[in-house]
Amino acid sequence: PVAAPVAVEPQPPAAVRRLPAALLLDHGGVIARSTRTPDARRAFATRLAEQLTRAGAAFTVDEVAAAIEAGRERYGRWKAERSDGAVVPEITPREFWCDLVGPDWSPHARAFLLAESARLTLEYARSKSHATMRPGVAEALAFCAEHGVRVAVVSNTVCGRAVREELDRYGITHLVGAHVYSDEIGRRKPDPATVTAAVTALGVAAADCWFVGDKPWRDMAAARRAGVVTTVLVRGGSASDAAVDAAPTGPADERPTHVIDEMTGLLGLLAQARAADSTPA
């Protein structure tokens, strides 16, 4: 069942009194920043066109590239149309490829997309952008490991497997206790289901966790609806500086407890909480 929205007022920044039981982090914009990779996208379209031809459904590279781009744009609209309900679903590989990328393709070509949808989603996720880990992430996660704070990655994505590969590349997988991805759960933030799944997987109470995200309308909202009290909003992700500046006085469930400029600031908050934990009452 979906957790009902909870009206939790954010605490002021001075209220860093103790370490969280768990740290929950979004991926894109928080753990990593991404830049588009047109050459990799073109290479993916070329491979897909070749595969279709071998299957007897010939397409040019330009036709495939245009279909993928149209599918990406349809996916943006698909998400926007479903973002305000009590249940916010994630698209399946079959839906993405058959309904968004190839809705007008022949039954033969659509049958190919259906058969290959899981593999195509992984290759698409690998090709659409190149991500680099933000400074301060590894240090914050190492701090958590040293001080017994459990960690989960909670991310909206069409391919959690690709995110896992990326975290392996960064060398931080051993610092993560649980991975919760929308394509594997079937629900997207701001639906609280992914956050609830993460705290359940870690065996902690939501109220004892911190959530770190870059989108007030999605990350802060999902965390608070799941019962997380302390939320951290980081600049430099998807939200503009204006949106970040407005968040502390925005809708109640989108207000962050803390705003940090870089992920290095997260380590400062954790150290402050650790010091407060160690201070005699």
From TrEMBL:
What Gene Ontology molecular function terms does this protein carry? phosphoglycolate phosphatase activity
Query: Looking at the keywords, is Flavoprotein present?
Result: no
Keywords from UniProt, A to Z, are: Hydrolase
| Matches recorded under InterPro entries | HAD-like_hydrolase_sf (IPR050155), HAD-like_sf (IPR036412), HAD-SF_hydro_IA (IPR006439), HAD_sf (IPR023214)
A Pfam family assignment: Hydrolase
A Gene Ontology biological process noted in the UniProt record is: DNA repair
Gene3D superfamilies linked to this entry: HAD superfamily/HAD-like
The GO cellular component terms are:
cytosol
Q: PANTHER family under this entry? A: PHOSPHOGLYCOLATE PHOSPHATASE
- Spell out the protein name for this chain: HAD family hydrolase
Q: Which species is the source of this protein?
A: Streptomyces hainanensis
Give the classification, highest ranks: Bacteria, Bacillati, Actinomycetota, Actinomycetes, Kitasatosporales
